[in-house]
Each structure stands twice: as C-alpha cells, then as structure tokens.
Amino acid sequence: MTTLDRVSRLSFLTVFGIVLIYPIIWMISASFKPLPEIFSTVNLIPSKFVITSYINGWKGTGQFGFSTFFFNTFLLVVPTVIATVVSSLLVAYGFARFRFPMKNVLFSMMIATLMLPNAVIIIPSYLLFRNFGWLDTYWTFIIPAAFATYPFFIFMLVQFFRGLPRELDESAVVDGCNSFKILTHILLPLCKPAIVSAALFQFIWTWNDFFNSLIYINSVKKYPISLGLRMSLDNSSISNWDQVMAMSVLSVLPCLLIFFFAQRYFVEGIATTGIKG
Q1: Nearest one of 93, 85, 104 to 158, comparing CA atoms
Q2: CA gap 135, 115 in Å, rounded
Q3: 200 contacts 266 by C-beta, under 8 angstroms
Q4: Assuming Cys at both sites, which of 134, 171, 204, 232 could form a disulfide with 129, CB separation 3.0 to 4.6 Å?
C-alpha cells in the first residue's frame, strides 16, 4: 500500500468518523449553551459555558428527579444482563457440546425466533405478564432473560463454543471433571470475549429500550431513564432543551464508558464468533 493510499484511507475514515460522532458532539455542546443559543447558532463552542442545565435537569420536572431514574435503570438493566448472560451461556453450552434427541430441530426453532419482530409477540407477552401480575415491575424484563429468550446471544455463544477444541473437554474428563466443571473451569475463562460482547450488547439494548418500558412500566417512580427523558418533554417543559440535552449526555455516558473500557474484548468476541463455526 502506497503512502497516498494510506493518506486517502485515513482521510476518508476521519471524515466518516466525524460525521458519525457529530450528533454526540453537538448534544454535548448544546448542554453547556444558554437556552436561547442552542438553536440560534451552529457554533459548537458556546459563547458562555453554563452548568445550570445539569443542575436543574438533575432535579427533574416533577416529584422524581433523574437520580431516581438512573437508580431504576440500573435496577432494571444489571439483573437483566446477568440473567441473559448466564442463561444464554448454559443453553449455548448444551447445544454446542451435548448430543440429545431433536437437537438440530430445537436449534433451528431457536434460530427461527430471530425472525419474529417484537410487534408480533408484544400482545401475547403483555397478556401473559398481566396474568402473572408482573406489570409495572421489572420482572417483565428479568424473568424472560433468565430463561434464555434472546436467541442472538445463544447463537453467538454457540459459534464461540464450536471454535474451542473438544480435546479440552476430553482432557478435563480424564482429570475427573464433570460437565459443569468443564464449563466453569475450562471453557468459561476462554469465553470471556464472547461473554463481554453479549453483556455489552444486552446492556446497551436494555438501557436504551423505550418501547418495552413504555408498555410494561406505568408508575413514574419506576421509570427508567428513557421514560424520564420523554416525560421531560411534555407541554410544560418543552422549552427546556438545555436540560434535556444535559440529561441526554448523562444518559449515554454509561454506555460510552462501558463500550470503551470493554472495546478490546468486544472486538475480539465479535471477530471470533464470526469466523469460527
């Protein structure tokens, strides 16, 4: 590759990256601008830096502030991510390492559920959760995750397991390990990239989920951040865009931090699950 080709590629990637990240840069800039300046100028650098938008926005517009919404979001997201990873790991281990009747049929049925849009199952799910008494609780997110209802993660982990040599299992059996010890002592440490990738995907998807939270959560005191931001855009506070931008910055900050800290494992997990099978 010539120097000109490298410079051209680097320039293209730089411009493309700036275009992708510009909305986030604009949102951060708008959160520090005075309210009249947000939509009156295209300059990214504020004429005057203000932090009152963060202070007032954190207090919220009603009885509950964003400290409550953040706490609710972590209370919803963390158990859901843990339940998803554990259940998907166990199911993927079974499909990848064991033989049992109708294994291929069941695996095909599991993959077929990837084709089902959420709109198809939202009404049956709502009726089922209503009968269980789970509406307006976080169980509507945690319990399904504990039963491996996310086939994407199962498929991703199955692909990773299939890329690990079976000789590891055989050696562990010779050393006296049972199936559970093989998973926890031999395979689990090797699956760290795939596990981090699954956890990262689920964290971001659940953190940003608006539709399901809107359907299942009714009490304002249980609102996650997505619904808290929407509530701040009602008719009485539609002009407080500085506070909305400030809280939007804080809402995306955990996802950005987790992604950058886990980026190495994420890239490795996606690469290995994509080429091994």
Answers
A1: 93
A2: 26
A3: yes
A4: 134
Beta carbons of 169 and 161 less than 8 angstroms apart: no
d(CA 150, CA 144): 9
Residue-wise pLDDT for 246-277, tens only, equals 999 999 999 888 888 877 776 665 555 544 43
Q: Does pTM surpass 0.70?
A: yes
- Is there a contact between 45 and 29 (Cβ–Cβ < 8 Å)? yes
Q: How many CA atoms lie within 13 A of 44 on its CB side?
A: 7
| Tokens standing for residue 19 | 């275009």
Task: Give CA–CA dist 85/77, Å, rounded.
Answer: 12
Report the alpha-carbon distance of residue 190 to residue 188 in Å, rounded.
Answer: 5
> What are the structure tokens assigned to 203, written together?
């964290």
Closest CA to 230 of 244, 246, 215, 251: 244
DSSP for 94-111 reads HHHH---TTHHHHHHHHH
CA distance 25 to 256: 13
- What is the average pLDDT across 63-72? 91
Would you state the structure tokens that stand for residue 166, as one six-digit string?
A: 């079976």
* Token digits of residue 192: 């760290």
CA-wise closest residue to 92 among 116, 111, 68: 111
**CB contact at 8 A, 121 and 190:** no
Question: Residue 140: which of 223, 224, 216 has the closest Cα?
Answer: 216
Give the Cα separation of 105 and 96 in Å (integer): 14
Q: Tell me the pLDDT tens digit for each residue of 185-199.
A: 888 888 888 898 899
